[in-house]
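Minutes, project huddle
Topic: does the predicted pose make sense with NAP bound?
PN asked that the exact inputs be recorded in the minutes so nobody has to dig through chat later. Recorded below.
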Amino acid sequence: MHPVGLAIIGLGRWANVLAGVYERSDNVRVITGFSRTREKREAFARRHGCACEESLDAVLARSDVEAVAVITPNDQHADAIERAARAGKHVYVEKPIAVSIAHANRIDAVIRETGVTFLCGHSARRLGGVRQMKRMIDRGEIGDVSMVEAVFSNERGLELEEGDWRGDPAKAPGGPLIQLGVHQTDNLEFLLGPVARVTSVGKRMYTRVRNVTVSQTLLEFQSGQSAYLGANWVAPGVFTINVYGTKANLFYSLDFSWWSRSDVTDAHSILRKRAFTQMDDDPDHRLLCDTDVEFPPTDHLRDEIEEFALAIRSGGETEVGTRTATRSLAVALAAVKSSAERRAVEIQEILGE
Ligand SMILES: NC(=O)c1ccc[n+]([C@@H]2O[C@H](COP(=O)([O-])OP(=O)(O)OC[C@H]3O[C@@H](n4cnc5c(N)ncnc54)[C@H](OP(=O)(O)O)[C@@H]3O)[C@@H](O)[C@H]2O)c1
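Predicted holo structure (tokens), as shared on screen:
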């Protein structure tokens, strides 16, 4: 297929990671980019062999730009998306879809009104091990699921200085919850369906910034199942999901140091199944047995942009549209509210705000 001409908006750390991923794909071609700082624009253009523009208007005026990837801080997503969609450009946006439900609703409205293709970068649901857990749950291979534990941590809170948008509770509410935990709220809804309500405690610990750095949340699903979500900015990288079924348990873990190298992230992850096995020589004695589960490898960051490009060319739907992405944000924001008000918060209450 003819590659989709892409412009990247917001040329910070993650934009450089994604531009490197996009260079490995035949479905997209990074044509140009925009950030407000000249040095960042020039460095990005040099590193990725593309153009750069001095304004968003200049990006949107280019006829060879068919789509934009919005990789700015969360509170800047909605404005950039509205302008791009109204200029007829398809939109990829990094997670979380926005900083608030009001912003997410603005994005939903403009995407519906303009009819452009939209995808939000909840890449973690595309990890090979997460896909495999979903298949195993849906096929009943581990029986009925009662609970899930999901944790995502890194050491960001130890490095943050005042002035970084991540340290500001207005720009990154909940700290690690909205930056890391939102990958897991999406995964948990992907695995178990809609969350009904959450109860959460967030704390500011071991950091120089004002924001929360440690967050623990209990999620109750509409199905009656429950989950624990730990999101932490002051501990070395952890990404785990443990699923407890009536026939077997699943333990998934990936080495966070390979998160950005999506071509090999799966190779640095492990999925184990634990179930009873009968002893041939002793029918009364059952032993717990752990087995490694094989799964087809994916490239979580490349797969999502390729799905986006194919949807643009075919006019089809994408897996993570505005509604799905708004739900995972709502779950995270419900947890922030629960911690602030020390009560359980219904997701519907947040979605209705
Ligand atoms: N999927 C993942 O695993 C993952 C990982 C990291 C980050 N992210 C997401 O990616 C986004 C960016 O994160 P990051 O780590 O790259 O942050 P970052 O390093 O701070 O980069 C963001 C860049 O956006 C630019 N910017 C700010 N406001 C802008 C505006 N109005 N128009 C154009 N550019 C603007 C800033 O440069 P100027 O000051 O030059 O404009 C800044 O360099 C966030 O939504 C974050 O949640 C996702």
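Observations noted during the meeting:
- The pocket of NAP is lined by residues 9-15, 34-37, 40, 71-74, 76, 94-95, 121, 123, 179 (CB under 6 Å).
- DSSP finds eleven helices and 14 strands in the chain.
No decisions taken; revisit at the next huddle.
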